[in-house]
Design goal:
- Helices cover about 35% and strands about 20% of the residues.
- By secondary structure, it is α+β, with helices and mostly antiparallel strands.
- The chain has an eight-stranded mixed β-sheet, with no helix packed on it. A five-stranded mixed β-sheet has the order 16-17-18-20-19. It has a four-stranded antiparallel β-sheet with strand order 9-10-15-12, with no helix packed on it.
- α7 (about 425-435) crosses α8 (about 445-455), α10 (about 560-570) runs antiparallel to α11 and α12 (about 590-605) packs parallel to α14.
Amino acid sequence: MIRDPLRNNNRHRRRPAFLALAALVAIFIAAPRLRADEPYARTRDYDLQHSRIALRFDLDQKKVLGEVTHSLSILHDGCAKIVFDSAGLTIQKVTVNKAAAKFETTAEKLIIPLAAEAKTGEKFDITIKYEGKPAKGMYFILPDKDYPDRPSQIWTQGESEDTHYYLPTYDYPNDRLTTETILTVPSSWITVSNGKLMSVSDAGKGLKTWYWKESVPSSTYLITVVAGEFDEVKDTWRGIPVTYYAPKGRGDRLAINYGRTPAMMELFSKKFGVDYAWEKYAQVMVDDFVAGGMENSSATTNTSTSLVHPKLAPEYFTGEDDLISHELGHQWFGDLVTCKDWGNIWLNEGFATFLEAVWSEAHFGKDQADFERWNGAREWFESNNLWNKPIVRHDFDDSSEFDGNSYGKGGWVLYMLRHQIGEEAFYRGIKHYLEVNRGKNVVTGDLAKAIEEATHTNVDQFFGQWVYGAGAPRFDLSYTYDGEKHQVMLAVKQTQTAEGYVGIFRVPVEVEITTASGPKLYNVAVSKDKQTFSLPAETAPLMVLFDKGGHVLKSAEFHKEKKEWLYQLKNAADLADRADAAVALGKMKNDEEVVAALGETLRNDKAWGVRAVAADTLGKLGGTAASKQLLAVLDSKDGPWVRDRVVSALGNFKDDAAVAAKLNSVAKQDDSYRARAAALQALGRLKGPDALATLDAAVAADSPDGFLRNAALRSLGSLGDDKAVPLLLQWSAAGKPVESRAAAINSLARLQKDNKDITKQIASYLTEPHFHVRMAAIYALGGRSDATAIPALEALLKSDDLSIEMAPMIKGQIARLKKAADGKSGSNPSSGGADEESAESGGGEKLTTEQRLEKLEHLLQEMSERLKSMEKRLQPPKQ
């Protein structure tokens, strides 16, 4: 699952997803809730084998009316009672093997005493009739006075342990069952659930009953119910139904965004050697989803923000494919084979994240996959809260196991394993893992065992440092050349502090030495904190690459001369090495040769990712020469994904008339909507005298899905002109498009920070049902440095309807406000007061509140475009 709606690709990069915000979220401290995630698997008294679930709905009261029959088998002698998880449900009647039975309930359990102690293997059919208004797990998205035309929808979200809020059941992943799901809904509605659609029948009174049957066992958090007003598009893969659903009126967006799904199914089936296992594959896009996507067995639910407008979709290089491939990958890793406990969730999420890059490499090319991996490594290193935590851990009670280690680092670990043991051996091991554990629950040891059995490769040390250990190597690198001995003396230091779960790493590394006669590759084994490697070179090197191509998750400070970085930027074969060179050159200020080289890269590099990094670097370097390079490339017809980055980089050049003129021109008439949106936001950062009028006009104008309006609304916060407050209040109000409201709220928070009425107005949005609005309000209050917002956030934290994302986010923003308040009172002099919130990035950089908000604003823009997290991931809460 991509919890992280802010995944870190060219649109919204979870992974999370949810991963890109990991550094902004504080620890998930204790809060009044019914129950947090259980880190270890329970000892079971019974095996839940099949559930027949019949549901009706009272739409006026947002109530579920249910009857479920559980078929189960006792696992040990002396079992005197059956206990199901159940929260907030009114249990009306229970029968055991068709005989009326007594029962009792607690806040979290339904307890059914048995007439006599049961023996191992004894079977029971237990029927429970109930009703309830679910606080979570099941969500009613219905028209209301503010949004009267919104399509009606009901959908569920079970991960981690939210199924029992609408269905009394065993709610932990270490059991598997088959299901029948019978849904009675208005006759004009469509439903989707697990398995095969067996029938649709008339139920009278304007209702129909849909009967779904899933014959392949999976865990209860993967049960799904979706019902409502949807458009449907049908497809197939090898004769298996593949269907896509959009909220009514948006069906024209399905094919352009989701049409590559069958090709993904084919690729993954061939790569794994294990075919897609379920009776169908459905993808249902729903409004106000509380995550990026959720991999329910045979029927994924995704956010409707993934339904990008047909005029905008071609402007994104990989489209929605990271989300789609991630959730599809879960059908094998998470659904067919499922983690035994949440401490091993990386076996679900790490694989799904890895498979995003597998698809990218196969469909978009190696450079795209390399760029995603390069970005992912940088994001992971920026998330300091992940550093000292192993991927597999059980020291949590708060859903924080869904973090950037489970997603981003987990995906990196699998990539490194593939690279180290080889493509063929890796997939042979994965095939064996899927085959021997098919339909089972697993821990990390099962993966290691399967790989060893299939490849005869001992991976204990690899798993020990990368999965059970924490951190990653930080290298300090330098070399000298001995002309007499014709040797390169490569000095390698590991500079990470070895403490706790973080140690000194043992990693195989490829070193490439390029001389006038060409490149030569050498394999070295790094295993100590300090080592020197002697490598042959006939002449002085033109370039030395450590970990050529970037196959190890690491950070590296390689001490090189400018001329070598310039050579590397132009000549290195792999994207990661050229991108590293661009970043390194960005540290060399006021150097025309560097600027010229980056400009050439921006125009000519074969990989759009390197061109984008060059644009970013030129923007950070600043100066007239750099702005000329950026302006010149805008006259070319590069892809929107590059133009977006070039225009954004121009937002760093203040007091440059040529830049302002070009940005105004792009904002009004560029062929690319993304470039126009980037120009609007750049104009806000430049704070030019005419910017308010330009942004005001953009808010009033039309564009697909209000794309340009939303960019202008976001930009008003950067502009910082209090004259925009009335406009932002207007667009933050109920009834306006939800994504526009989120953008307006975010900017409103940055204006008139001493105005308590604005704080109060934003706080009023915390109780709204709209996920994006609530999220925007949470972050807006956190960045406002107004401690009067703390009670409203604390009150929200006590509610029992917090979605999968919200609790840790709320706590993070409360922590920010308290820290800002401490700074104002002088108890933390180094904080610099309200405008200098000290927050460290991965490099120890101190960011002001405005800088953090600009960073957050960019992430929220990505969320509004596509929704990390998300599976990118911030300290992603439960999925």
